[in-house]
Automatic annotation (TrEMBL):
Residues 185-195 have a biased composition (Low complexity). Residues 180-207, 531-621 are annotated as: Disordered. Residues 608-621 have a biased composition (Acidic residues). Residues 552-569 have a biased composition (Polar residues). It comes from Leucosporidium creatinivorum. This is F-box domain-containing protein.
């Protein structure tokens, strides 16, 4: 494997300054050599071959050509945007960014067209209008009357690629210098403001700040990881020493903050840092036991402090966005430790990426903390042993009671196979939805969010994972302000399996998303089993027998309600598992038909062409809502699922009601992030404006 040359700050500075020169270096006048007489296309080819000597980081070998003569500088200097554009596309993953920009531009164009059609009035020509020959002239060029687009999502140009190439080389060099020097430079040491952005509306929009140097570096790393299709990761790991750099950031911005009195502050920089650590792959093998304990200490507030750290882009209690300042005025935070802060806020920033200034909301800090925390628990034998214990002092309805004996060995029972937290997959298409969410959900007072059907198909199918719970008395003390309970209180988790169907409904005129029922019941009326059959437009997708992980398929929306109830109950049949068998997955072997076990676990439409045609005919951004139904089971027993998806950011709200109901009803709220489901569950007895009893959950699609 190629080893990059030793780092030289002088060389990097010379390269950076050379690219920024506006006049070529002076050289004595002499007769041009044969190589200087070559066409510029051949000189560019030669330079590209020279740059391949250093495949990661800035192409430092290019400097030797730039200083040869005026001719080489004129051809290969910073004014040649086409050359540096080609270099960028050769060395970095760029097609994923181009694809996402095109997706965002399509959404933007459709919304502009829709707004134009809704606002236009019928126009008739005047009765006395007379058209004469020559009254209309043809434009001299096709683009004469085209208005230049100022949208940040307009197609890329060579200038954009060249600017991004220079900027990335600068960021990678900064990271490498910091990693080799062993410290984050003091000039860039503050990882963005800890205060959530104050709303200063200008034209009904929130004024966003630009990040400081350190946070901009983190934004670049994070977006490069989301765009990675093999090339970006090599630059970050092999040249910029990403893992060393993130260890420095951890000590600088995470550990130091955790050691301060009180709760750590939530910032965009810390959210990006935790996500980069998760996506970039923290090296657990190099950590000492003391360092591993420190990581648990740092992550625990973000995981279990639900009353301090939101797991949602905007308040989960508001069913649709954007909101107005009349309905949700800007107010100070509520007073009292038990009052929930449900004010619409934003941490979005105006960042630089791909040669553009774009508005982006940072990823949710809590999600990265949950992924990292429970992955580390699985790798730490001591933590795994502690996690298996039942929370001490938990009230009766949270205790792990006697488990039922499985009635069959079918796929609805829990086996001894542990449910592991999946490591992130760095394939760009998996993260297209994550990027779209961050780019669309910027300002709760003005952003339109995602199209209504943007997340269609993400939740349908079979999932396995776990839900965690904190000791109830310790949680209550923590809400009251006793932080010591956070670190001393025990916690546990249990495996669970979900089987979900999506159903798309068209909203009636004047009807809004969120349903008519209580928010704590996912918008359904109390006692309702799910969406009414008459309102369902389509079921996305209609499952085959193996759609639900080899189990029996739930009835289609065309069936009667009694048939649906019977089938769901059958799918939920089977017992639990002993308390000691934590992190169980569903056993694929069972009594279901053999062809069901062999079929794909990911739901597919029976008629692919018909499904694609239907999607083309539907307005993805129309007045639709995605409703959810399903069933599942855990060591606590069987349960039914029903819920809906908030189209603004793709957040799902699902009620989990055990049958029989001795275990109560719980509300799950979360997102599909990187192909996994992550979020928090909450009790349904505490009022919305108060902090309830909450825990976390992680779900992975069954393989």
């Amino acid at each position: 494997m190629y080893e990059p040359p030793a780092f030289s700050p002088t060389l990097a500075q010379a390269f950076s300054s050379t690219l920024s020169l506006q006049s070529p270096p002076s050289h004595p006048t002499s007769a041009p050599s044969l190589i200087e007489a070559l066409p510029f296309e051949l000189l560019e080819k030669i330079a590209a071959a020279v740059c391949r000597q250093t495949p990661t980081g800035p192409p430092s070998a290019l400097l030797s050509l730039l200083v040869l003569s005026r001719r080489f500088y004129d051809v290969l200097g910073p004014r040649n945007e086409g050359f540096y554009s080609d270099l960028f596309r050769e060395r970095f993953d760029w097609r994923s960014a181009e694809r996402r920009w095109a997706q965002m531009k399509t959404i933007e164009d459709k919304r502009e067209k829709k707004a134009l059609l809704e606002g236009v009035t019928e126009v008739r020509p005047a009765e006395d209008l007379k058209l004469t020959y020559g009254s209309f002239t043809r434009p001299s060029s096709p683009t004469e009357y085209l208005v230049e687009s100022h949208s940040p999502w307009r197609p890329f140009t060579s200038r954009d690629f060249a600017a991004e190439f220079k900027r990335r080389c600068t960021v990678l060099t900064r990271m490498r210098r910091a990693a080799m020097g062993g410290q984050i430079p003091p000039s860039s040491s503050r990882p963005s403001s800890p205060r959530l952005q104050a709303f200063t509306p200008k034209g009904n929009r929130t004024t966003l700040s630009e990040p400081d140097e350190l946070t901009q570096n983190l934004w670049t790393c994070y977006l490069m990881l989301l765009e990675n299709d093999t090339k970006n990761l090599d630059h970050l790991v092999d040249y910029a020493y990403l893992r060393t750099y993130m260890r420095l950031f951890y000590k600088h911005s995470l550990l130091s903050e955790a050691l301060n009195p009180g709760w750590p502050r939530q910032t965009a920089g810390r959210a990006l840092g935790l996500w980069i650590g998760w996506l970039g792959g923290d090296d657990l093998s190099s950590e000492s036991p003391v360092e591993a304990d420190e990581r648990f200490f740092v992550l625990k507030p973000y995981v279990f402090g639900a009353h301090k750290f939101d797991a949602f882009h905007v308040p989960w209690t508001i069913p649709s966005f954007p909101v107005t300042h009349q309905s949700h005025p800007i107010l100070p935070p509520p007073i009292g430790p038990f009052n929930a802060d449900l004010r619409p806020r934003t941490q979005a920033q105006l960042i630089t990426h791909m040669g553009r200034k774009i508005e982006m909301a940072p990823p949710i800090l809590t999600h990265a903390a949950i992924f990292s925390f429970f992955y580390r628990v699985e790798q730490d034998p001591a933590a795994s042993t502690d996690l298996m214990a039942t929370p001490v002092g938990a009230p009766a309805h949270f205790q792990m009671g006697p488990m039922e004996t499985p009635r069959s060995a079918g796929p609805s029972t829990l086996s001894s196979k542990p449910v592991k937290t999946s490591l992130p997959v760095l394939a760009s298409r998996i993260h297209d939805g994550d990027f779209a969410r961050l780019a669309s959900c910027v300002d709760p007072y003005s952003s339109l969010g995602l199209p209504a059907l943007r997340t269609r198909g993400e939740l349908a199918g079979s999932w396995e994972g776990r839900f965690s719970f904190f000791d109830f008395d310790s949680y209550k003390d923590m809400l009251g302000g006793r932080m010591r309970s956070l670190y001393e209180g025990p916690f546990g988790d249990q495996p669970q399996v979900w089987k979900i169907e999506e159903q798309i409904v068209r909203l009636k005129k004047g009807e809004k998303q969120g349903g008519k029922g209580p928010t704590l019941n996912a918008g359904y009326e109390i006692g309702s089993l799910g969406p009414a059959r008459s309102s369902i437009l389509s079921q996305s997708p209609p499952p085959r027998p193996a759609t639900l992980a080899g189990g029996p398929s739930t009835s289609h929306a065309r069936g009667s309600s009694s048939e649906r109830t019977t089938t769901v109950s059958a799918a939920a049949a089977g017992g639990g598992a002993p308390l000691g068998s934590r992190r169980k997955s569903v056993d694929g072997a069972g009594e279901w038909p053999e062809e069901a076990a062999r079929a794909s676990k990911r739901p597919r439409s029976i008629d692919i062409e018909e499904e694609e045609m239907r999607e083309e005919q539907e307005d993805e951004d129309g007045d639709y809502e995605i409703l959810l139904t399903g069933s599942g089971h855990s060591a606590w027993g069987q349960f039914l699922l029903k819920g809906r998806v908030r189209s603004y950011d793709g957040m799902f709200s699902i009620t989990k009601e055990y049958t029989p109901d001795s275990r109560g009803r719980w509300l799950y709220r979360g997102y599909c992030v990187g192909g996994n489901l992550v979020g928090r569950w909450r009790d349904t007895h505490t009022p919305l404006d108060l902090h309830g009893y909450e825990g976390t959950f992680l779900m992975t699609r069954r393989a």
